[in-house]
Amino acid sequence: MPLALLSLFDIVKSQACTPNTWLNLTALPAPRQEHSTVAINDTTIAIVGGIIPIGDAPETTDIMQFYDISSDTWLNATPAPYKVNNPNVAVVEGKIYLLGGLIDGPELPDGSTNWVASGECYVYDPTADVWTALEPMPNGTERGSAHSGVHGEMIYLAGGATMLQNLYQDSVTMVTAFNTTSGSWQRLPPAAAGIPASRRGGVGSIVGDTFYVIGGRWFGQLNVTSTVFMLHLNDQAAGWKTSPDHMPVPRGGLSGDVVGSIVYTFGGEGNPNTLTGVFNETEAFDTTTQQWTKLVPMAVPRQGTHAVAVGNKVYIPGGGLQQDGKSVVVNNVTLYENLSSHFDAYCV
Ligand SMILES: *[C@@H]1O[C@H](CO)[C@@H](O)[C@H](O)[C@H]1NC(C)=O
Ligand SMILES: *[C@@H]1O[C@H](CO)[C@@H](O)[C@H](O)[C@H]1NC(C)=O
Ligand SMILES: *[C@@H]1O[C@H](CO)[C@@H](O)[C@H](O)[C@H]1NC(C)=O
Ligand SMILES: *[C@@H]1O[C@H](CO)[C@@H](O)[C@H](O)[C@H]1NC(C)=O
Ligand SMILES: *[C@@H]1O[C@H](CO)[C@@H](O)[C@H](O)[C@H]1NC(C)=O
Ligand SMILES: *[C@@H]1O[C@H](CO)[C@@H](O)[C@H](O)[C@H]1NC(C)=O
Ligand SMILES: *[C@@H]1O[C@H](CO)[C@@H](O)[C@H](O)[C@H]1NC(C)=O
Ligand SMILES: *[C@@H]1O[C@H](CO)[C@@H](O)[C@H](O)[C@H]1NC(C)=O
């Protein structure tokens, strides 16, 4: 076909990407982790919230950045209405929904991290470039780090966390749903309103009509899990099921997304076998056969980031190079965290 007849979209989709290889992309404008990553459309990825280094210590941010896939470039977008890390973010019909997350809580006597839940909700319309307030999360359901999925007009949030301190980090079971048509939160049948065990920082994915919650941890970072929880969204009264097929390597703080019927999962933290505490695993779950496959490990192993799939690539911006809070000596300096600006994609 003559080039002139190919749309930009076709060219982007056909960009060379050898299956099962890692592709380095333009680094983020600043090191960053604990953000959320979504695709607005087939050409634009957005990262929302998280923490970025300000002086010596990372701080919770409201910065939103767009990545243009065709030109491999980043640009600053209109900031989120509040500073938030581990935000619950989803795209429905080209609009970005920011549904709560973790925010800086009251300062602790020793000045250590104290993140608490926020239930503030907003929607961003890229065409109008405006954030608009939505109904907040119902009292008692405020949280961040939930596993999210989009099913038609609905955004589902499963599990998550209501707080994070150095020595205490909770995880919850609750499942809630936001209806983007009515602009309101909806109740789920009791059997669907809780995952079988509390989780934070796993991978949430809706494939067809089934919502999957994969891996993640409960409470402390070393309490990593390998479970696959499943809910048929068209038969919610039947409740959550646990797949007999576990992830090959239990992990928390991992990232992932779905391409076709396969959920790809990457990295994470809570690894007792590496100096950094980070996992390098790339493992794929085929939802049709319920089988796991181990794939090419991450070239730059990371945790605490969020992945998004567009076409045949899974994009993974930033993240942490080590387990947060663990003492790791790098170049004779002891680090307790190490935020990365590295940006790459896994070619499926
Ligand atoms: C990708 O980036 C990482 C981190 O900067 C680097 O270590 C690696 O060599 C790069 N890979 C390629 C193929 O350029
Ligand atoms: C995707 O969204 C971005 C940001 O709103 C916009 O600039 C771009 O034109 C959109 N691309 C397509 C193909 O709609
Ligand atoms: C939210 O729930 C808490 C605990 O049950 C209660 O103390 C508080 O009054 C509630 N707030 C609102 C706005 O309903
Ligand atoms: C979402 O809200 C609309 C408008 O109230 C309603 O018609 C629709 O049934 C709701 N969707 C679901 C899945 O409950
Ligand atoms: C798991 O979480 C519990 C509850 O916070 C904690 O007491 C325990 O130390 C954790 N274990 C590991 C291995 O992280
Ligand atoms: C991945 O990490 C494991 C330790 O968890 C290590 O044994 C292995 O060599 C690593 N693989 C690569 C390709 O770096
Ligand atoms: C590492 O740091 C210590 C303390 O600052 C110093 O005494 C030592 O010489 C350093 N070692 C190297 C190899 O730089
Ligand atoms: C983070 O880790 C990388 C890789 O080990 C290292 O090159 C870098 O210097 C570390 N960052 C800081 C701030 O020390």
Automatic annotation (TrEMBL):
<feature type="signal peptide">
    <location>
        <begin position="1"/>
        <end position="16"/>
    </location>
</feature>
<protein>
    <recommendedName>
        <fullName>Galactose oxidase</fullName>
    </recommendedName>
</protein>
<dbReference type="Pfam" id="PF01344">
    <property type="entry name" value="Kelch_1"/>
</dbReference>
<keyword id="KW-0732">Signal</keyword>
<dbReference type="InterPro" id="IPR006652">
    <property type="entry name" value="Kelch_1"/>
</dbReference>
<dbReference type="InterPro" id="IPR015915">
    <property type="entry name" value="Kelch-typ_b-propeller"/>
</dbReference>
<dbReference type="Pfam" id="PF24681">
    <property type="entry name" value="Kelch_KLHDC2_KLHL20_DRC7"/>
</dbReference>
